[in-house]
TrEMBL record:
Name of this chain's protein: Arrestin-like N-terminal domain-containing protein
Any Gene Ontology CC annotation: cytosol
InterPro entries hit by this protein: Arrestin-like_C, Arrestin-like_N, Arrestin_domain-protein, Ig_E-set
GO molecular function term, any single one: ubiquitin protein ligase binding
PANTHER family assigned to the protein according to its UniProt record, in alphabetical order: ARRESTIN DOMAIN CONTAINING PROTEIN, FI21816P1
Domain Arrestin-like N-terminal: 24-152
Source organism (scientific name): Basidiobolus meristosporus CBS 931.73
One of the protein's GO biological processes: ubiquitin-dependent endocytosis
Lineage top rank: taxon: Eukaryota
């Protein structure tokens, strides 16, 4: 074990922001810096540096030419001094010393994004300078920023038909899912009146549409991907089937909308119906929202709720007190 160490511990596994960047409230990045010495020591200063960078690299087409769109930007650069540099050294006891910290961040900062085209990431560095020729202590830790939007999570119900052949009903319990969740969808197919036996096949997938953007420019590039195709073998009509579509974190990008990119998703069902020797193909597209975490964990980082009695300070007057004051 080394004679001295320094560590960073965050209060939450990630910094959660809620709402669109233009209307989102700010948030505090909180944690503690832990410094350990085997024996009493001196420290010149203890400084934290929070940095964020973006790196965007994509190709757009103009006429017959393909041009590269490459730019970088500094997302954030903040410094927090915990122990001020001074002529007199700061005395540190043997053992463990903890220094809580807090960075006040605006609500419009970019969320963490790591794709082949867009990279937005953050890091926090803690440096403890020591006197003379003693090596300084330093540690760097990534900061994960996630953004969640308000959404309508009503069930999805859709109806469609293959004329004179089949009636199709689609049902999903909700519209919003998170990376790591499963999407169970129910499909009910009924032959229309007078139709003979119909053999069916279902091919389902998640379609991802990403529009890359260059700030202060009209240049864009649209990329479409298909994820996790689930294939169902033939089955008879007049039946209800459940298809489970897992959302894998290693090959799908969560929904987002910022100055660099916009990502949306939809479930696409390809239904093949064999009827009277003909094969009829029908597509159903259902928009969904995919968040950056499982739905069960999204609200773990929300601040605790306090009743009026629990809040510090003098509570506001009641309506009855206001009315009495107005009458007097």
């Amino acid at each position: 074990m080394p004679h001295s160490t320094i560590e960073i511990h965050f209060s939450n596994p990630y910094l959660a922001l809620y709402g669109h960047p233009s209307t989102s409230a700010g948030k505090a990045l909180k944690g503690v810096v832990v410094v350990r010495f085997k024996r009493p020591a001196k420290v010149k200063s203890l400084i934290l540096k929070l940095e964020g960078e973006s790196d965007i690299n994509w190709i757009y087409s103009t006429a017959l030419l393909n041009s590269k769109c490459r730019f970088r930007d500094k997302l954030i650069d903040q410094t927090l001094t915990i122990l001020e540099p001074s002529e007199e050294m700061h005395s540190m006891p043997a053992g463990e010393s903890k220094f809580p910290f807090e960075f006040a961040l605006d609500g419009n900062i970019m969320e963490t994004i790591k794709t082949q085209v867009v990279r937005c990431d953050y890091s926090l560095t803690a440096v403890a300078e020591r006197p003379h020729f003693q090596p300084r202590l330093s540690v760097k830790k990534p900061v994960l920023v996630k953004r969640f939007f308000q959404h309508n999570d009503d069930p999805i119900v859709a109806y469609d038909t293959i004329p004179n052949v089949l009636s199709i009903e689609f049902f999903a319990q909700k519209k919003v899912y998170g990376i790591g969740d499963d999407i169970p969808i129910q499909i009910r197919c009924l032959p229309l009146g007078g139709a003979d036996r119909v053999c069916l096949r279902i091919n389902s997938a998640i379609k991802e549409i990403t529009t890359f953007k260059k700030p202060k420019s009209h240049k864009t590039n649209v990329e479409k991907k298909w994820h996790r195709v689930v294939f169902e073998k033939e089955f008879s009509d007049s039946t209800e089937r459940e298809v489970v579509m897992p959302i894998q974190s290693n090959d799908i990008q969560f929904d987002c909308d910022n100055v660099f990119m916009e990502t949306k998703h939809e479930i696409v069902l390809r239904i093949e119906a064999k009827h009277q020797g003909q094969t009829l193909t029908h597509f159903i597209k259902i928009p969904i929202i995919i968040l950056s975490d499982t739905v069960d964990r999204i609200f773990e980082a929300l601040p605790p709720y306090y009743t009026l009695e629990d809040l510090p300070g003098v509570p506001p007057p009641s309506y009855s007190q206001i009315n009495i004051a107005l009458v007097v």
